[in-house]
Structure formats: structure tokens, C-alpha cells
Amino acid sequence: MTDIREVWMNSVVGTALNPDGHYGYQCVDVPDHFAEFIFGVPWAQSVGGVAGANGLLDSASDAYWERIDYYHGFVPQRYDVLVYAGDNLNQWGHTAIVESADWTGINVIQQDGFAYPWQFVDGNYYSAKPAHRYRLAYAQAGTGPLKGVLRARTNKLIGGGASLNPAGTTETTPTEEDDMFSDLDRERLNWLWETVSGGKSGYKEAGAVAADAAAARVAAEAVLDAVSPGETGKRHAGAVYAALDALKTTDATVDATELARALASALPAELAKKVVAELGTALGGK
After folding, report:
1. Computed from CA positions of residues 145, 85, 177, 283, in that sequence, does the dihedral angle turn out positive or negative?
2. With left for phi above 0 and alpha for psi between -120 and 50, is residue 34 left, alpha or beta?
């Protein structure tokens, strides 16, 4: 039995979603349609009516949704309903359903009430573009910043969210985030590990963390686990923030902001040298 949310994700792209029958194909029509599909009740019962997408966190029923307000380092999960706050270009905000996410952005299924082509309905021009895939940032002009997400309560799903194969083991559905580091240069990851471990000749003097090589080695292994592809329990958490959490468990003194910047910038090769200095500072090296 396939998770009902997955059935929706795999069937809706290219479909014009308009459950309220007004104002063309709006962004709010997507979570309304999603809710009706996965819960089997009218959207007004689970999502509620809103003047704009940014009102969804307040209108949605607690019986059907868990509300999660955005916090620094938060990375949405597959099936989450994104709610953006709006800005001076669009006071109504935006909403979409998450396909996959990492700390750099979010892949979604959405509609956009401003998107071309347009249709003349209800006395004005509105979008005629059906549901489509898109990549959103955590904040951009026209949506404002991410305000939070709605996460469906699995006990309310049709089928209870079950996703089992005939043998009784849980199915997994590949997503982009599972492979987000699949093309990353493995040599660069090994270089990072060796650099902060204090055991690489020619690097240990530059690495500053060599003063406590044993603790640094534990931290380095945690970093490598956190940024490796397919690490269970971490691939959905955002590699940078998973690495931060791993490093915070050591005795080293960590400056979270600087370390996040260092880890993020470590991925492009041209910034690799910066990692040594930043990690050395973040881990309290001299």
C-alpha cells in the first residue's frame, strides 16, 4: 500500500488544480487539493479559508496538521506545506508542497497565481498555468521569507500513511536530497577529514586543531558522516546543520555561525583553503 501523499506527488504535475473554482490556478489551490486528496475531507475542514497563502499556518486545523514555525537551520521534509510570509511585492505570501530540500533551497510542486499564461475569470486576469515543479529559496522577492510549514498528521491520512512492500518492509522513494552529494568530489571530503584530524603530514601544522588531535578526529568523523550522501537520519536534516550538531557534541568550542559558513563554503573547490582557517577558529585552535 503506497503512502497516499506519494500517490499525489506522482500524479499531480501538469494538472490544473482549482478546488475552490475561483481566480484561476492559485498557489493556495495546491495545498487545498493536496489536503482533500490525502485526508478525504473537504479542504475547508482541514485547511480552512484564507485571504492569502500567508494565513495558512493560522487557519489550518490542528487535528489534521502539525504547525512548525521556521527557525534558523530548519529544513523542510517531503510532503510539508510551505507557507511564505509575503513582502512588499506580494502581500499575500506563497505556498507550495515540498518534494525535497536542503539548506540551499527547496524543490516544490506549486502553482503561481501570477504565472503566465493567463486566463480571464472572475472579472480579472489570473494564471492558467497548472501545477508544476519549481525550486524556491528560503526567501525571495515576491514570496518573502519562509514563515513555517504544515506537516500532515499521519493518523489522519487515508491509509494512515502506510507504505509497505509485500515483505513488510518500509518502501523508500528516491529524492533529489538523497543524492545531493552524489557528485561531490570524494577526495575533497577526505581532504577535509585529514585536515582536521591532525594526522596528515603537511596539514597538521596548518590545521590549528592539531592541539587536540583525538577530539578533532572524532569531530572530523562526525562531519564526514554528516555530509556523506545517504546517511540515515541526517540526509533530511540538512548537512551543514547536521555537521554543526555533531561538532557541538565534542568538547571543542564551536562558533556556530562561522562553522556553518566554513562548511558551506568548503563544498566549492575554490574555497577549500578557507575551510582550514575557519574550522581551526571554530574549534578553538590557535
Report:
1. positive
2. alpha
Q: Please, what's the b/e burial string for 117-139 (b: 16 or more CB within 10 A of its CB; e: otherwise)?
A: eeeeeeeeebbebebbeeebebe
pTM above 0.90, yes or no: no
CA-to-CA distance for 28 and 13, rounded, in angstroms?
15
Which of 168, 103, 136, 155 is closest to 30 using CA atoms?
136
Q: Phi and psi (nearest 5°) for 140?
A: -160, 160
pLDDT digits (tens, 9 = 90+) for 5-36: 999 999 999 999 999 888 889 999 999 999 99
Q: What integer is the mean pLDDT of 130-153?
A: 96
| Grid coordinates of 10 | 506522482
Angle at 231 between CA 263 and CA 174, to 5 degrees: 110
Single-letter amino acid, residue 210: A
Amino acid letter at 256? A
Task: Encode pLDDT of 56-81 as tens digits.
Answer: 999 999 999 999 999 999 999 999 99
Dig out the grid coordinates for 240 from the structure: 551543514
Among the CATH numbers 3.90.1720.10, 3.40.50.9100, 3.40.50.2300, 2.30.30.240, which is that of 4-161?
A: 3.90.1720.10
